[in-house]
Amino acid sequence: MKLILFGPPGAGKGTQAKNISSHYSIPHLSTGNIFRANIKNQTELGKKVKSILDAGELVPDETVVDLVVDELQNDTYNNGYILDGFPRTIPQAVALDKYLALEDTAIDLFLTLSVPQEELINRILSRGEGRTDDTPEKIKTRLEVYYNETELVLNYYKKQEIVVKINGMGSIDEIFRRISTELDKI
Ligand code: AMP
Fold it and tell me: Is 38 in the pocket of ligand 1 (CB under 6 A)?
């Protein structure tokens, strides 16, 4: 099962991706987590992207695509995966499709978590993960980036008829039950 978990910052992608991963035994690939780990370990990639993450801006497409394609070569992903935080731009979505076509495979489902904007801000401010981009100013930038650039990705996938909208309001368990209902149909 190959999934994309989509939605604005604070929609609960990371939390639900972890739930799906443990319940369905498929790996969770979060580009944000990979970048943060590289920053923590002060790798070349980490040094290159630190100021971009701190600003709440997007890492250049080529860097992200290379990272994901490289990561997906790993045998761990042979039986499927959950992409969280990728693709975030149309060129990334196109590059992913190109890669999948070469591998003779495709994404099964594109789940989009919908949450009103006020709720997103409250969730991010109260999650206390210590992220340098979880400040009011950076949240504003990240939401702008989402609505200006990333949301277009949703329309791109709508054409492939694999999009399912999930109500992202309610408890973590309630939201997970809505997701499972969709995944159990595959
Ligand atoms: P996330 O953990 O998904 O909220 O990502 C945190 C930050 O990592 C984002 O604000 C971007 O700076 C960067 N990032 C993660 N995924 C991508 C992506 N697909 N394209 C560009 N930048 C990304």
Answer: no
